[in-house]
Amino acid sequence: MSERDPQLMSIGRFSETTRLSVKALRLYDQQGLLVPEHVDTSNGYRYYGPAQVPRAEAIRVLRGMDMPLEEIGRVLDANPENRDRLMGQHLKRLETNLTDLQQKLSAFAELVEGKKALMPYEVSIKEVPDTQVAAVEKETDLGRVGAAIGEGFGAIMGVIGPAGITPTGAPFVVYHDVIDEETPGKIEMCIPVPAAFDDAGPVSSKKLEGGEVASTLHKGAYHEISAAYHAVSSWMSDNGYQPAAPPAEVYLNDPSEVSESDQLTELMWAIKPAS
Questions:
Q1: Phi and psi dihedrals of 105, rounded to 5?
Q2: Whole-prediction pTM value?
Q3: How crowded is residue 72: how many other Cβ atoms within 10 Å of its Cβ?
Q4: Which of 93, 111, 128, 173 would staple 210 via disulfide (CB 3.0–4.6 Å)?
């Protein structure tokens, strides 16, 4: 067995000291966030030093603030000025999430108390042509989906804008996976463009296949669109259809120019006859 400092703690003891699970400590090691001070070469056992306790405590606190692991690493390794800037950005996201939650609670109370009726959705079939787009794919969780969408569209505009490429349609997001409180997944931000172009970093040029879609219009805050999904899903079931591809949300107006109650989102879901 390789030599080690007798003051070092086993991963189990370090877990008890820091209130971080052994599973979490192994993950932090894999991601380079909290690397053991010593690893026994004969058995792979991890050992941590007393000086690592403050970093572990900082990780625990930041995770309690819903900060993603990759961002925690940047915060802990940053100089004080950058650390303050990164923390400020995260706190701003938390404030946005809190406002969003308060709005959801208010809408829920209005529904329960009968002050607000569920929005009626008219579902129709439309033919969508093949569409050339500039696209960015991202893995995200529910808490960061809004930020991921903003980053994705920002990256696209950072490429097509300087290249003089003018969008030919409204921006939209394809939800390749169901994303909820427990499950992250892949989303794809897309902006229609007139022709193919050379890929640039995370921004790719691709052609999306068209076809029949079930479509409905949601008016109101983006976070209230789940009822539209239910309406389209129920319509498919009632009319002998099933999904043929992931759904897409098309943003028909600029959220910076209208109030939440006036935001317009078209939900389009590719369909095929039910088997």
A1: -65, -40
A2: 0.60
A3: 22
A4: 128
> Residue 200: pLDDT above 80?
yes
How many domains, the chain? 3
Query: Does residue 1 lie within any of the structural domains?
Result: no
pLDDT tens digits along 150-188: 999 999 999 999 999 999 999 999 999 988 767 889 999
The residue segments making up the domain with residue 96 are 84-116
107 and 155 belong to one structural domain: no
Residue 115 predicted with pLDDT over 60: no
Token pair listed for 84: 């303050």
* Distance (Å) of CA 57 to CA 50, 76, 196, 203: 12, 11, 49, 37
Q: In the prediction, which pLDDT does 1 show?
A: 40
Sheet containing strand 9-10, edge to edge, reads 9-10, 46-48, 38-39
Tokens at 124, concatenated? 């129709």
pLDDT (0 to 100) of residue 160: 97
Rounded Cα distance between 69 and 205, Å, is: 30
Q: Which pair of structure tokens corresponds to residue 275?
A: 């088997």
**Assigned token pair, 187:** 């989303």
Q: Centre a 10 Å sphere on the Cβ of residue 149 and count the other Cβ atoms it contains.
A: 20
DSSP class of 240: T
Output DSSP code: residue 203: B
